[in-house]
Every structure is written in C-alpha cells, then in structure tokens.
Amino acid sequence: xxxxxxxxxxxxxxxxxxxxxxxxxxxxxxxxxxxxxxxxxxxxxxxxxxxxxxxxxxxxxxxx
Length: 64
Hints:
By secondary structure, this protein is mainly α. The chain has helices spanning 5-17, 22-29, 33-41, 58-63. The longest helix has 13 residues, at 5-17.
C-alpha cells in the first residue's frame, strides 16, 4: 500500500511536533516504524523495484 505524500509529510510533522520516537508515532498512526524512518530519508514513493520479480512456478499458477 502506498501512502500519499501529504500523509507522509503530516506523519513526520506530528512526530517532530510531539517529540515522539518512530515507534510511538508509528503506533499512533497505524504504520510501521521502518516506514516512518524511510519516509524521513525519502518522502517520495519509489517508482520501481530494486530486485528482480519473484519466479512463480507455472504449474502452481495454472492450478490456481
């Protein structure tokens, strides 16, 4: 799930304004603390993956 840039910005502002840790702010907002730390480094969401797609077994895919 991708959160809007506005939500990310407000989440970081709330953390700073209330002087919360990443864990405390994440708990209040219902997101992971790693997400908040990552947003602090780069607010914009990534447009691509940095790893190759997962290989799916064709037989299992056909059964599904």
